[in-house]
Each structure stands twice: as structure tokens, then as C-alpha cells.
Amino acid sequence: MVKSAQEWSNDWARSAAVKPPSPYVENTFTRPKSWVYHLTLGLFLGGQVLMRVIQGRINRHHVMDYMVAAGPNSLSPVLMTNLFAGMIFTIQTARELIRYGASHALGGAFAVAFCRELAPILTAAILAGQVGSAFAAEIGCMKVTDQIDALKMLRTDPIDYLVVPRVLACCVMLPVLTILSLVVGIAGGVFVAHQFYSIAPAVFLESVRSLLELQDLVMVLFKSTLFGAMIALFACSWGLTTTCSKSVGQSATAAVVTTWVSLFVADFFLSLLLFNGVQIH
């Protein structure tokens, strides 16, 4: 019996109603459960990594390999970004301070904003985009090609083999990159202040020294270590939950976006707790 046009239309509507939406056209943040799920997964994954580090279950050879990926291979974009960020920040700050006759305080304002906040978050964001996305894509490819299942068949713990070395590498290298970023950013600030505003390098650096204390640097290193762990954990969590080959790219992108949002949220609370406490005391 030939179906009428209305029957064909009804059949098409019923099939479209039960057809699940394609996961490849959905944005990560249009699905709150997905973001919250990976945040929670990252926290649990961090607990497992911490337990394995305490137990000494560390593959040092793999840690060194990933330290190269997270350190020297990311050095050029990190230094270039912080160099120009330091110069841009100096230009914008110097205009206002000179207007009020406080050019001698330019280095102090630079130290408070750039050294405490801008350099650590910029360095972490670059590392998340370059290294975090690579980690998520690499582990995602291993997941969809059943290489992780093969590790389990060989009685190799995937957390020990894949996650712990990446987390440790990022925790070690991000503070190193942040310190180098501070040096390069300050050098850019000194150059701009001297060339465009005739502020002597000694005056600029003395102002930096007067407001940037050793305790501030310790807190910056603490923040960088935490940011490094977050980058690796969120990248690994997205890679381990990749379901098919078409979603590898989506997992890499979602890992970067999730990490960026989490970094800024964490940076807000850390700044509120750490640096606000320094001012009170």
C-alpha cells in the first residue's frame, strides 16, 4: 500500500523525534553537565595522581620527555607573549602615572599587576593552548584506537603511564616558564619606560623591588604549580573520555576552553586569599 504524503511526514517526524542529537555540533558550554563532569573528573584524577606520587609510582623517563614538551618547546611563544605584554602594560600605565606626576612609581604598579597576576595567567593560558590541547588529542587518539585497553591487558596502569608524568611535567615546568616570563616582561617594561618616557632603568627597577617582595614570588610559584596541575588534569580527563575519532578534535578544544575558564576562576580565589592576606598583614 502506497503511503500518503501525510503518513510520510508523520513517519519522518517520529524518526526525527527519537534521533539523538549529534554530539559534534554541540558546544561544550551548552551542556553544563559535561563541563561540571570534567571538572569533577579532574579533581578525582588529581587525587589519584597525588596518591601515586606519594607512593613513589613515578616513571621518570616519561616525566623528562613531557618536561621537554612543556618547557623548551613552549618557550618561544611564552617569552614573546610576555615580552610584548610587559611593554603594552608599561605604555598604558605610564600614560596615567605621568599625568599625575607619579612616574617614579611606574615599576611598582608594573610589579603589582604584571608580576603577580598577568605573567602567571598568560603563561598558563599559552601552555594550556599548546601543551594541554596536545595532551588531550594524544590521549584521545589512544582511547579511540584501543591503546589504553591494550595497556590494561599488559597490566599497566593508564594513570601511572599517561597521567602522572604529564601532571608532574607541567607542575615543574610552568613555574620555570613563569619566572622566565617575569624576567622578560620586566625587561620589556624597562625598555619602554626608558625609550619612550625617559625613566631611568634604575628608578624603574627600584620601584619594582620596593613593592615586589620575596613572599610574592613564592605565592606566584605556588599559583603556577597549581595551574600546571590543572592544565594537565583537564587535558587528560578530556582525552580519557573521548568516544570516537571524530570527537578527538572536539576534546582538544574543549580541554583548552575548560582549562582557561578554570584558570581564571581559580586565579580570582587565589588572589583573594593570598595577596589580599599580604595586604592585611
From TrEMBL:
<protein>
    <submittedName>
        <fullName>MlaE family lipid ABC transporter permease subunit</fullName>
    </submittedName>
</protein>
<keyword id="KW-1133">Transmembrane helix</keyword>
<feature type="transmembrane region" description="Helical">
    <location>
        <begin position="186"/>
        <end position="205"/>
    </location>
</feature>
<dbReference type="InterPro" id="IPR003453">
    <property type="entry name" value="ABC_MlaE_roteobac"/>
</dbReference>
<feature type="transmembrane region" description="Helical">
    <location>
        <begin position="66"/>
        <end position="91"/>
    </location>
</feature>
<comment type="similarity">
    <text>Belongs to the MlaE permease family.</text>
</comment>
<dbReference type="Pfam" id="PF02405">
    <property type="entry name" value="MlaE"/>
</dbReference>
<keyword id="KW-0813">Transport</keyword>
<feature type="transmembrane region" description="Helical">
    <location>
        <begin position="252"/>
        <end position="275"/>
    </location>
</feature>
<keyword id="KW-0472">Membrane</keyword>
<dbReference type="InterPro" id="IPR030802">
    <property type="entry name" value="Permease_MalE"/>
</dbReference>
<feature type="transmembrane region" description="Helical">
    <location>
        <begin position="217"/>
        <end position="240"/>
    </location>
</feature>
<keyword id="KW-0812">Transmembrane</keyword>
<feature type="transmembrane region" description="Helical">
    <location>
        <begin position="35"/>
        <end position="54"/>
    </location>
</feature>
